[in-house]
Amino acid sequence: MSFGGALLRVEDLRVQFVTDDGVVHAVDGISYGVRQGKTLGIVGESGSGKTVASLTTMGLTRGRSTRVSGAIMFEGQDLLRASGEELRRIRGDQIAMIFQDPLSSLHPYYKVGWQLIEVMRAHRDISKAAAHDRAVELLELVGIPDPQRRVSQYPHEFSGGMRQRAMIAMALANEPKLLIADEPTTALDVTVQAQILALIKDLQQRLRMAVIIITHDLGVVAEIADEIAVMYAGRIVEHASTEEIFRAPQHPYTWGLLKSIPRLDIPRGEELIPIAGRPPSLINRPSGCHFHPRCPYAQPAHSRTDPRLEPVPDQPGHEVACLLAPAVRTRIWGDLQAGRAPAAARELAQTVPAGRGSERPPVVKEGGP
């Protein structure tokens, strides 16, 4: 997939953490891009590497026990090679992040308005009085009632939804070019979730920001994202437009994510189908296709063959890392859509040998990584 013209371009990013138990392969060679005014959704279970990739973009994973390689290009500058001072100038100004837990991200000892003012004065030549007025304006912009009073309150005096809105206000204080939203609707009820997502979408249109939204729920990004990258075990296993991901997903993991969320077009009493098993250890990763121990359609060869991310035939801009033949994937998804259980559709995976139909030969790895 081409990322030409992207505001942010991540190229073959690898992030490893050296621990006493071994090397954690948190991010394992991912590439993606996001353009101005567009939204990229990065989706996957906890531990898939979504947040680590974005924290690395912000320069927040640097340390003695961290190994990072690849490139993160932002407006022509490689952030991986930027100095600490250069990153401090960019972070919170040109690139901002809404962190996953607003209660722990907001300092409990300082008033919300003071924290907003600090963000602005760190990057702008602005008086305290002007910054205070701007803080009130920002709280009103994100839909917090009575902002004149709220600006002088502490985080514990805000509800969960209001703290999340305050975090959005803080991220938008300097009108960044790129906004990274890490699980912005976690622990919020569905009504507030919808409000937060609508707010991000509205502000993006006003400011022409690029947005990366990180979540484990495909339903969250269904309306807001232009493209979706599905991550598993530190890798992107599928990347396509949002329309293609929902219309014709190609990876068994993506199928599992889609079948495990509630829908209005299925009978009310029908049970959701969870993905079997647990996410793999990123220290001792499975051999071959990392998803094969949990995949209902895995063949014996899949434990030895490591698939590459490659184009889906006749679907421009759609890439998938799967050893099942394209025709077989299409038939299985059709059966799942018709209500057939994964176990019943498993026989389709045996109709074409693993790996056939790929334009490039897969990488074969014997044993563990």
Instruction: Quote the beta fraction.
Output: 15-25%
Rg (C-alpha, Å): 22 Å
Strand order in the sheet with the most strands: 6-7-8-3-9-10-13-12
Mean pLDDT value: 88
Helix content: 25-40%
Q: Tell me the name of the CATH class of the largest domain.
A: Alpha Beta
Straight-line distance between termini: 26 Å
Low-confidence stretches: 352-369
Determine the CATH superfamily of the largest domain: P-loop containing nucleotide triphosphate hydrolases
Shape: globular
How many domains? The number is: 3
Task: Please write out the topology.
Elements: E1 8-19, E2 22-34, E3 39-43, H1 50-57, E4 66-74, E5 77-78, H2 84-90, E6 95-98, H3 102-105, H4 112-123, H5 128-141, H6 147-150, H7 160-172, E7 178-182, H8 190-207, E8 210-215, H9 218-221, E9 227-232, E10 235-241, H10 242-247, H11 252-259, E11 305-306, E12 310-311, E13 319-320, H12 326-337, H13 342-345, E14 363-364
Parallel strand pairs: 3-8, 3-9, 6-7, 7-8
Antiparallel strand pairs: 1-2, 1-4, 4-5, 9-10, 10-13, 11-14, 12-13
Helix pairs in contact: 4-5, 5-7, 7-8
